[in-house]
Amino acid sequence: MREILEGFRDKNIGKNLADRIASYDGPKISIMEVCGTHTMSIARYGIRSILPDSIRLVSGPGCPVCVTPGYYIGSSIELAGYDDVIIATFGDLMRIPFKDSCLLKEKSEGRDIRVVYSPLECINLALDNPLKKIVFLSVGFETTIPVSALLAINTLELGIKNLYLLTANKTIPEALKLLSSDKDIGIDGFIYPGHVSAVIGDMLYKEIAECYAIGGVITGFDPLDILGAIIRLIDNISARDPRVENLYSRIVKPEGNIKAINAINEVFEKCDSIWRGLGLIKGSGLMLREKYRHMDAWNLLDSSSISYDEPKGCICGEILKGKATPDECSLFGKTCTPLTPVGSCMVSSEGTCAAYQKYNI
Predict the structure, then answer these.
(1) According to the model, what pLDDT value does residue 8 have?
(2) HSE toward the beta carbon, residue 208, CA cutoff 13 A
């Protein structure tokens, strides 16, 4: 395995690729990396530093934690306050601020909130606590949604009655269509996410290329993967050929992961969804189908909604659209740090602000 990975980090090949990118002298182009893991890799390997001024690399909304709206965290905190509820969540959600609180603070004050590494851990939680309602915070893109779907399927098959999902799952292609149509952003090409693409394949990206004349490259997370994707995009954009290419064929198949797709379609159906910073995107969310709707934790809430304004001065929304960079935010690195995050882009381990802070960009 080490030899395979080292093949994608060969410094001599990397230098040749970097030199080729640096020699580009054509019109200005703007490339958006969609995935938060790509954002971290680009920062870690210093890829922005080798780009000529004519190539602009911007980060997109590729982190589910970053695009989760404030009202969802508020609703999670409300549920955590119920005496008969145990909240189960991934760790990244714990520190997203909501007004003057967050799930981590609520836990420190005695709320029963537990970090899980897999949604399936909730099954044992439910069996071990029959008098409690177990609420899993189901937040994710296509990468993690299949496991949430499997949780619902197993819960139904086992006849468990005290397990619920508070859903805020979102699908990437609809957000990309919105960004593609925004002329103020001016995207010329996408670096498509490897993890999401392993599930959904490449057909939905081809729809974007056909409708908006914006191509993209699916690639992995090592430096040669990313450099190779940039070169292919430079060539295709220069040739005005908005095609979709797959440089991650060792993982991503054109049809995606059929079992994962079938699990998603069994449990969820499309709905409109609010994205932090992007607003309402039609058909970009997933809600439980009628067969599974008795597991919907939204029905447990006393309040139908919680109004929430973004913290004053926070520009997470503009950063998620690729219209601004973290260093343009007056809070970045000052009042907003990894230890005292103001916005979700600093909270998430894959957030753009977190990447800029960690690697001192």
Answers:
(1) 66
(2) 25
For the chain, the first-to-last Cα distance in angstroms comes to 31
Question: Is 50 part of a structural domain of the chain?
Answer: yes
The domain in which residue 33 lies consists of 2-63+183-246
Q: What is the pLDDT of residue 360?
A: 85
Copy the structure tokens of residue 147: 């496991």
* SS3 annotation, 317-345: HHHHCCCCCHHHCCCECCCECCCCCCCHH
Helix (H), strand (E) counts: the chain: 15, 11
pTM for this predicted structure? 0.92
Q: What is the CATH number of the domain that holds 36?
A: 3.40.50.11750
Q: How many domains does the chain have?
A: 1
State which residues of the chain have pLDDT below 50: 1
- Residue whose C-alpha is closest to residue 72's, from 120, 117, 139: 139
Which is it for strands 268-275 and 279-288: parallel, antiparallel or unpaired?
antiparallel
| Residue 175 placed within a domain | no
